[in-house]
Amino acid sequence: MKKIPVIIDTDIGDDIDDTWALILALLMDELDIKLISVSIGDTKYKAKLVAKILERLKKTHIPIYISKKIDDGNPSQQKWVKDFHLKDYPGIIFDNEHEVFKRIILGTKEKMTMLCLGPMTTIQQIMLVYPNLFSKCRFISMAGAIHKGYINEDKPHVEYNVVQDIQAFRDVLSHVDNFVLAPLDVCRDIIIKGNNYKTLLKHDRKIAIKTILENYEIWQQDYQGGALKFDYKDSSTILYDLVPLFYLMSSEKFINEELLISVTHEGRTVIGEDNKIICLLKINDIDYFYDRTIKTLLKVRKDYNA
Ligand SMILES: [Ca+2]
């Protein structure tokens, strides 16, 4: 199988869905992950999370890019990395060295897919240095809200990844020709529960699952942001960031629409006339993706025994 080259840009370490998404991505045979970039908030803490996950899953050949620290953010999985030190990490880390993006994108023959799981702050920073670098990349971004809002809202409102850095989102959107948007419409109902979740609990010594559940338990206690908390004995939380990965697993199971959208000054994504995108609006067979997710997380043979 020909693998899809991807760069993952994630705001991992705040809401827990990025942790699920990163671990799933690392185990997907379809992907050739070229770089993992951590954005927003305390980026050193976020890099530690990524590094420890890569070490556990034996993927330290994938380089990590640390963007500039912006603020302390919401380090809800801090306890998981409290004894982990980047100076002892055997993998490759680029600390705010923009050039790595250029080297990787230009050094990859196929079109690069940018998997954007957080605000566009880092991508915008790289664009300032290399204005045309991303223009021929395909972007798949969890962002915005077209017809529906968050699960507890009755109409679309602002979505976090856009409103956190509206100008960055606008800049990237207007710059990229091939932009796939995964808005709340298609992301807000993604929850692993029932038998799927029971299967995960049953195999909680499998390294990928153990890593997710350890983080989820800490997050459940320490997270203080706006995401909804569910009982971690029963289900996951809402896993928005899995949807871009589902699209890479099987794009034909999505109902898409080509739309022109604009970004308002408050950060709403509205149907307008500015930017042509492919908008993911519905998933035809969600059970297919839950099944694939569970099978992928289970496939690591080695159990955890450290
Ligand atoms: Ca995210």
Structure overview:
With 306 residues, this protein is α/β, with parallel strands linked by helices. It has one domain (4-298): Ribonucleoside hydrolase-like (Inosine-uridine Nucleoside N-ribohydrolase, Chain A). Helix content is 35%, strand content 19%. The protein has 11 helices and 10 strands. It has a 10-stranded mixed beta sheet with strand order 4-3-2-1-5-6-7-10-8-9, sandwiched between helices. The longest helix is centred in the C-terminal third of the chain and has 16 residues, at 207-222. The chain is globular and about 50 Å long. Residues 11, 15, 17-18, 117-118, 241 line the site of calcium ion.
Q: Based on DSSP secondary structure assignment, what is the total number of beta strands? A: 10
| Total domains | 1
Which value, in Å, is the CA radius of gyration? 18 Å
Which secondary-structure class do the elements indicate?
Answer: alpha/beta
Shape: globular
**Series of secondary-structure elements, N-terminal to C-terminal:** EHEHEEHEHEHHEHHHHEEEH
- Give a short account of the largest sheet: 10 strands, mixed
Unreliable stretches (pLDDT < 50, length at least 5) are: none
Distance between the termini: 33 Å
Question: What oligomeric arrangement do these chains adopt?
Answer: single chain
Tell me which ligands are bound: calcium ion
Percent of sequence in beta strands: 15-25%
- Secondary structure: helix percent: 25-40%
Q: What count of helical segments does DSSP give? A: 11
What do we call the CATH homologous superfamily? Ribonucleoside hydrolase-like
Just name the CATH architecture.
Alpha-Beta Complex
Strand order of the largest sheet: 4-3-2-1-5-6-7-10-8-9
Mean pLDDT: 95
